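Appendix B, example 12.
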Amino acid sequence: MHGTLLTHPGCRAECPGCAHRSFTREESLLQKAQFVAQWLEPYQSLLEPIRSVAEQDRYHFRDRSVLTAEWDRGGEQWKLGFRKKKKDPKNYREIPPVVDIVSCPVHTERVRQVHAFLVRALPGSARFPLAFVAFNGPFLTLVVKAKRDSLSADILPRLESFPWADLGLKGVLVDFHPSAGDRVFSSSGQVRVWGQEQSEVEGMRVHASSFSQLLPQLHAESLDIAFEFLLEAGRPVEAGLDLYCGVGRSLLRLGNLPVAGV
């Protein structure tokens, strides 16, 4: 993000979330180009200009996020956002407050609507010790810093009764993670409280915890370039290795190439 974000309604100046929001668009692209050039210095002659989305597409696009939850005792509601940076990084006892970004202009309308609903509707921290709120497209995961049997019996039925479909969601899960902190999700303990845990998107099964790129347009362009290169080689691909493949969108395309063996 860049400079104009700070003037956008809902942007909090003290939020540490967007490193480039004080940059102009040109300054942001220049910094990225310099970063790439530094790390790929031997391949300078092969580098192309950084590609970016149109200005209007730099807002309301983030449909995947993980925000820290903090109970505001004064306001008697939840704050969802990022913690401020520590004044003393070496002081492990220091816990900076959360900067509430419920109306962040980078998030999609669905995310903002659900965030606004959660801060009003969720029980307080004494009954529901919420630690993180995680979005993955139409799936919502509420990470609770507690064991399942420590919650009141009425909590999960209450969550199930919320109007999730009206908010544009397909599934809601609760992740019981008593030691939630540096690590957001537990290795087990997720419970589906409403809807489904996965859905089909563009021919692929996407789970509530699946990873995919935030800007589909740029991701699609990058795959087009990669596979054009493979096809120009003029021979079948003998092997394919996709590091950090996410849900496997690129592997799906790889399977459509003339492959000798993968």
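The CA atoms of residues 158 and 211 lie 29 Å apart. The radius of gyration is 21 Å.
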